[in-house]
């Protein structure tokens, strides 16, 4: 019997069922339709009233770094736009795993959000035995911005250019060291990518936050670090550290005299830091859409673009679906880097 015959037979069979059976099927289908409509209307009502109490943004990084600073900026602007308090709750540790896990376990109601960066997309490969899965336990809300990194060296170390760093590292493998804000963070991965592409050996010195790493580089306890241009530019201009290269495709607007690593001798090098917000999986789509609209509006404002531009950051605007795709692509990118360079946690 062909497919048309089978379909006709199935319809005829159903029509031959007792009237009570057909009536019950109709009631069941109507019930499902009402249930679906009820859920949709409930989510819409929830979004209309959202937020009606304090919203917490968990930042799985220490205070003082770009993630913390931009989380606080966004919390203030969201409070102004949505009329409710947004508070930042710093939960650093274990390369962002502690705070991210807390957010994953939060109620999916829109009142707990996660400030995240490419640290978490890196961790999907670097830390396979985490208690959560980024794309399994979260939904993307919106990106915030991105910025270049800058490789800075303590001025007492006798290295004034990237060529000096590479030459000294090759002369005495394992003698030089570099700080980062923790395993898997963009600062760590930028350093590992540099080591791999420049074919040098340096010792990674992880900290529990960027402020501690920064302090020890400034004090000379550690030789160098990759840091965000948004937080290190003033130290560079004050002569407290020597900038030997930036990490983007082109020179940074705030450090135009500093060559990119690509220009300075590591062909093809590129690494940036980006920030965004996610919510626990199951957060109503209407709430996610409302947050995305508010965040995108803030990031697109002329005064925000100007303020961030002076700091070396550029806004990112995507809808939730595009942001989810961006996250998946970033996970795949760092998977390739980590596997090809055989990068492991210290």
Give structural notes.
Helices cover 51% and strands 18% of the residues. By secondary structure, it is an alpha/beta fold. Strand 5, helix 8 (186-198) and strand 6 form a beta-alpha-beta unit. The radius of gyration is 25 Å and the shape is elongated. The model is unreliable at 2-8 (pLDDT under 50).
SSE layout:
Blueprint: H1 3-16, H2 19-49, E1 55-59, H3 66-82, E2 86-90, H4 97-104, E3 112-117, H5 118-126, H6 134-137, E4 138-153, H7 162-171, E5 177-180, H8 186-198, E6 203-206, H9 210-219, E7 224-228, H10 229-237, E8 242-246, H11 261-264, E9 272-280, H12 285-300, H13 302-311, E10 313-315, H14 320-341
Parallel strand pairs: 1-2, 1-3, 5-6, 5-7
Antiparallel strand pairs: 3-9, 4-7, 4-8, 4-9, 4-10
Task: Write a concise synopsis of the structure shown.
By secondary structure, the protein is of the alpha/beta class.
- Uncertain runs with pLDDT below 50, 5 residues or more? 2-8
Query: Which class do the helix and strand fractions yield?
Result: alpha/beta
What fraction, in percent, of the residue positions are helical? 40-55%
Record field, number of beta strands:
10
Please work out how many helical segments DSSP would assign: 14
The largest sheet, given as strand count, sense and whether it forms a barrel, is: 10 strands, mixed
Mean pLDDT: 89
Strand content: 15-25%
Strand/helix succession: HHEHEHEHHEHEHEHEHEHEHHEH
Given the C-alpha coordinates, what overall shape results? elongated
Computed over alpha carbons, the radius of gyration is 25 Å
Distance between the termini: 65 Å
